[in-house]
Specification:
43% helix, alpha+beta, 5 helices
Length: 220
């Protein structure tokens, strides 16, 4: 679900590109101002052109190999942990552990778990709360697959996630069956990797069994 966008060039890549452009320009000027084009001068011009183009290609490949990381957005809100009070202790421990792992092992800023119309967990930078599933969440339920919003401000349906801190730049909407959803919001656009998605999907499958047991009546 990641979008491919060109990364800005670093200083070293810009110097390499400038040298290539300058070299190519000087080669052309040298050829045009020469009183006569001898075979040796033509061969030298071709070799110099190859060298200049090579420097420009190195600059482009350098930028792709070492892309500049997106800037981290400063989110407004307090750091905290909110857990539903009526959950079994074992589930509370699981939610506390899993959410902490997501916040420390991935570039996540906040985690929210919504199950059967209730917000059971919110951790990290806290938003105003009151999440209500909308069109994007329903689409995730219908497909049974996570939806990644790599740059949330580009999506017209972003108002669905007003319960999260304002200005969230990236978001993964991970369905849990057809009754729940995990929201994982990141600090910067395009910040989540494929391994982050796999980790979130695996934890959601583990949570699904535990959450479904909440519907079962207690045995006296």
């Amino acid at each position: 679900w990641h979008l491919c966008t060109p990364a800005p060039m670093g200083p070293a890549a810009r110097i390499c590109l400038s040298a290539g452009v300058a070299g190519l320009a000087l080669c052309v000027v040298n050829q045009l101002t020469a009183p006569a084009l001898s075979p040796a001068l033509e061969r030298a011009g071709v070799l110099a052109s190859f060298l200049a183009v090579g420097l420009m290609l190195v600059a482009i490949l350098w930028t792709r190999a070492v892309p500049v990381a997106p800037e981290r957005v400063e989110l407004e809100g307090e750091q905290g942990l909110q857990l539903a009070e009526d959950l079994p202790e074992e589930l509370r421990q699981e939610l506390a552990w899993g959410s902490q792992m997501l916040l420390t092992a991935t570039p996540a800023a906040t985690v929210l778990l919504h199950w059967q119309g209730r917000c059971l967990l919110q951790r990290g930078v806290l938003g105003r709360g009151g999440f209500e599933p909308g069109a994007i969440t329903r689409r995730a339920w219908e497909t049974g697959k996570a939806i990644g919003l790599v740059n949330l401000k580009l999506y017209p349906g972003r108002d669905e996630f007003q319960a999260l801190p304002a200005g969230i730049p990236a978001l993964i909407v991970q369905p849990i069956g057809c009754e729940g959803v995990l929201l994982l919001a990141g600090w910067s656009p395009r910040c989540f990797s494929r391994s982050d998605e796999t980790w979130l999907e695996g934890w959601s499958l583990k949570l699904k069994s535990a959450l479904q047991e909440l519907k079962q009546p207690a045995v006296s």
